[in-house]
Design a protein that fits this description.
The complex is a heterodimer of chains A (257) and B (456).
Chain A (H helix, E strand, L loop, with lengths): L3 E10 L6 E10 L4 E6 L5 H9 L4 E10 L2 E2 L5 H6 L2 E4 L6 E5 H15 L7 H14 L10 E2 L5 H15 L3 E5 L7 H12 L7 E5 L4 H5 L4 E6 L2 E6 L1 H22 L1
Parallel strand pairs in A: 3-10, 3-11, 6-9, 9-10
Antiparallel strand pairs in A: 1-2, 1-4, 4-5, 7-8, 11-12
Chain B lengths: L25 H17 L15 H5 L3 E2 L8 H8 L7 E6 L2 E2 L13 E5 H7 L1 H5 L12 H8 L4 E6 L9 E7 L6 E3 L2 E6 L4 E10 L5 E11 L4 E9 L5 E10 L4 E8 L4 E10 L5 E10 L4 E10 L5 E10 L4 E10 L7 E10 L5 E10 L5 E10 L2 H8 L5 H17 L5 H14 L11 H9 L2
Parallel strand pairs in B: 1-7, 2-6, 5-8, 6-9, 7-10, 8-10, 9-11, 10-12, 11-13, 12-14, 13-15, 14-16, 15-17, 16-18, 17-19, 18-20, 19-21
Antiparallel strand pairs in B: 2-3, 4-5
Helix pairs in contact in B: 1-6, 7-8, 8-9
Classes of the chains: A alpha/beta (257), B alpha/beta (456).
Chain lengths: 257, 456
């Protein structure tokens, strides 16, 4: 059974006169797969990730999304998270006053409770996170700080993948994780994310650049334009786009029409 | 020119003077006379006066209060038991309706050099210790409520710490109010004198249960000699019909260190004036405040950090959580006098609004006359941020729980700074219960959680 099946998904900005952004997305993701989504700014790729995560700023107007056999769109953001959907934000917010360690413990226990697992006490939770921190080369002092407060862009992105490692999702949605990262930070984050792959989970990587995909090697690369996927290929497609640009894609699509 | 308020309200609203126990030393009679004269001259403040613009005390002025007595306060013992610290205090003085109750108190065995007793007893047995201190710091013209308290001063607490003494456990002053059939007023008076190098934690709790109007009109004077170190907590949990007005006047000597934690949870109308005078070079003041209120409650915190001497740091952080139709006021004044070079002062006021009907008024006031100083201040007010809520939800935290978690965390930023264990615990449990934080999200033992994180 596919992990995720998106059929004819349409979505708009949930505000009066809100723009239509997704105009009929079709996508199937099976367990163990990595799918990359590329496309110009405004093509809808980030929106796709956020709609799947349940962000209420967007409203679905048509189409279906089935996740683990259930209707995903009927579930609240937190229900989806407990069912193993994880969004690594493009712009992670700062939450002053909420310590990273309290929040993450609450999140981990919310998911465990949902799964019928016993909740973790502080000491056990912290044991769990200790090696994930080493994986992402994070300074342990950040656990005591408020969520993302005072973090540089790179630190925020590392924190996203660190949380992904802790939460162990079935479907990870990485929304432009590489934006704003320098070469070394990208390597750390990408290798960290790539190490989380296993046969039962899947990753959707939204990105502009091919470099991230050298570490998180995709099984499928999709190009989006104007709210739809217009081309799908293997990992070589990413390399092609990187060297030839999106105009090449448009021409190819026109040619084969 | 005095600003006359409701002169139509007779002084007998506050019980005729004759009701007071007569006697006491002459200096005390003079203090009372000065207090009453002053109050008669100015009356209650009105909202036309700058300092009272956002807090209308007409409801106090209109009510005929009799002087509170502990008679008939049968539930007091039970309340005292609930709010007492038991073995976690070096000593605990319990007051009922303003009067010291030895039989409800635990006087403990205080080390030599530490004295804690009822004020009335101190006036009787050791008036000389009080003469030069009582009324010297909180002057009768500071505000009308200080004048009123001074006019009726007769009981409260006196704490004296001799040179160099150090007390490990806190001294707890527990003021219990039990409403009676008629509205009643008490005027608790606290005087704390710390000599050179003395060190202690002192907690003042003002609590009341049930329903029924009463008025607590408190004044606390704290003087720290050079190098003294006082950690002070004030917890206000009056009942929801009560009025609570308190002035705390603090005087700091050279290199004296003062940390104040103030929590306002109860009462219908609260006004706290906290004035700290950094009178000695290198004195250090930290003021932390927490306001957690809901429907129809109003809490007004006015603070003054008076930097009179050089090289003094001061830090101030007040956090407010306003739910329902509550209202909060924060006015933090920082005065840096000409001599106070190298002042380093930071003031922050934050407010989390849990409803659209709550109102927060926050005003910093800086008056700086020295030219080599650092003064920063900041203020934020707003509802729970929905982007932040979504971030938490995207990790599996339920929407209500996410809002509660953020509210709890917001307030916990203040409570985690409280070193007196029973106070911190009481406040955290209160917060967790008030905000319906589900048990699985309550990190009720923040200290050991923090410690475990530090071990990482």
């Amino acid at each position: 059974m596919p992990l995720l099946e998106i059929k004819n998904l349409h979505a708009r900005v949930a505000a009066p006169g809100g723009r239509d952004i997704l105009m009929g997305v079709n996508l199937t993701i099976n367990p163990g797969e990595v799918h990359a989504i590329m496309g110009k700014n405004g093509s809808g790729k980030s929106t796709l990730a956020q709609v799947l995560a349940g962000r209420e700023a967007y409203q679905v107007t048509a189409g279906t999304v089935t996740y683990k056999g259930h209707d995903l769109l009927e579930q609240s953001a937190e229900e989806r998270a407990r069912e193993g959907v994880f969004l690594a934000f493009q712009y992670p917010v700062e939450i002053p006053g909420v310590s990273t360690s309290y929040f993450l413990k609450a999140a981990v226990n919310a998911v465990r409770k949902h799964r019928g697992q016993p909740e973790l006490e502080s000491v056990d939770f912290l044991k769990l996170v200790r090696d994930k921190m080493q994986l992402l080369k994070m300074d342990p002092s950040f656990m005591n700080r408020a969520i993302n407060e005072g973090f540089s862009g790179g630190e925020k992105k590392r924190n996203e993948i660190f949380q992904m490692a802790v939460m162990d999702p079935s479907l990870a949605l990485m929304d432009e994780t590489d934006s704003g990262l320098d070469v070394d930070a990208l390597k750390t984050v990408a290798e960290g994310a790539a190490s989380l792959r296993h046969k039962d989970n899947a990753i959707l990587v939204v990105t502009h650049y091919e470099r991230l995909l050298q570490y998180i090697v995709p099984d499928f690369v999709h190009i989006m334009r104007e709210g739809k996927i217009i081309m799908t290929g293997g990992k070589d497609l990413a390399i092609k786009v990187d060297s030839q640009g999106y105009d090449w894609v448009d021409q190819e699509v026109k040619r084969s029409a | 020119m005095t600003q006359l308020a409701d002169k139509s309200i007779p002084m007998t609203n506050f019980a005729p003077h004759e009701e007071l126990a007569a006697g006491g030393p002459e200096w005390l009679e003079l203090l009372r006379a000065a207090g009453l004269d002053r109050f008669n001259a100015v009356g209650f403040p009105t909202i036309r006066q700058e300092n009272w613009r956002h807090t209308n005390v007409a409801a106090i002025a209109r009510t005929a209060f009799k002087l509170a007595t502990p008679e008939g306060a049968n539930s007091a013992a039970e309340t005292a038991g609930r709010f007492g610290f038991g073995k976690d205090a070096a000593c605990e003085l319990v007051f009922v309706n303003g009067q010291f109750m030895p039989r409800l108190s635990r006087l403990g065995r205080l080390p030599r050099g530490v004295r804690a007793m009822g004020l009335a007893e101190a006036i009787d047995t050791d008036p000389d210790s009080l003469e030069n201190e009582l009324g010297r710091y909180a002057q009768v013209d500071a505000n009308p409520f200080v004048a009123l308290n001074s006019g009726y001063v007769r009981d409260g607490a006196f704490i004296h710490l001799s040179r160099g003494v150090s007390l490990l456990q806190p001294i707890h002053l527990l003021f219990v109010s039990v409403p009676s059939w008629e509205p009643a007023v008490s005027h608790p008076r606290v005087l704390i004198v710390a000599e050179e190098g003395a060190q202690a934690s002192i907690v003042e709790s003002y609590v009341g249960e049930g329903r029924g109007i009463y008025f607590t009109n408190a004044v606390t004077e704290i003087v720290l000699a050079d190098d003294a170190n006082i950690d002070h907590c004030k917890v206000q949990q009056e009942n929801l019909d009560a009025f609570h007005v308190a002035t705390m006047q603090v005087e700091l000597g050279r290199k004296a260190k003062f940390v104040s934690h103030s929590a306002s949870l109860g009462s219908k109308l609260t006004r706290n004036d906290l004035n700290v005078c950094l009178s000695g070079d290198g004195a250090d003041a930290t003021l932390n405040g927490l306001v957690l209120i809901g429907d129809a409650q109003h809490v007004d915190n006015h603070t003054l950090l008076d930097h009179a001497r050089p090289n003094c740091p001061s830090h101030e952080l007040y956090k407010h959580v306003l739910g329902g139709k509550s209202s909060g006021v924060f006015k933090g004044k920082i005065l840096v006098r000409q001599a106070a070079q190298k002042t380093d002062s930071k003031q922050t006021s934050k407010c989390l609004m849990l409803s659209d009907d709550a109102v927060m008024t926050s005003m910093p006031a800086l008056e700086i006359y020295a030219d080599d100083v650092k003064c920063t201040h900041g203020s934020t007010t707003g509802p729970v941020d929905e982007d932040q809520v979504f971030y938490l939800r995207s990790r599996g935290v339920g929407v209500e729980a996410a809002r509660h978690l953020m509210t709890y965390a917001f307030a916990a930023d203040i409570t985690r700074r409280i070193r007196v264990e029973p106070v911190r615990r009481r406040l955290e449990e209160y917060m967790a219960a008030q905000h319906g934080l589900p048990l699985d999200l309550r990190i009720t033992d923040l200290a050991s959680h923090d410690e475990a994180v530090r071990q990482l």
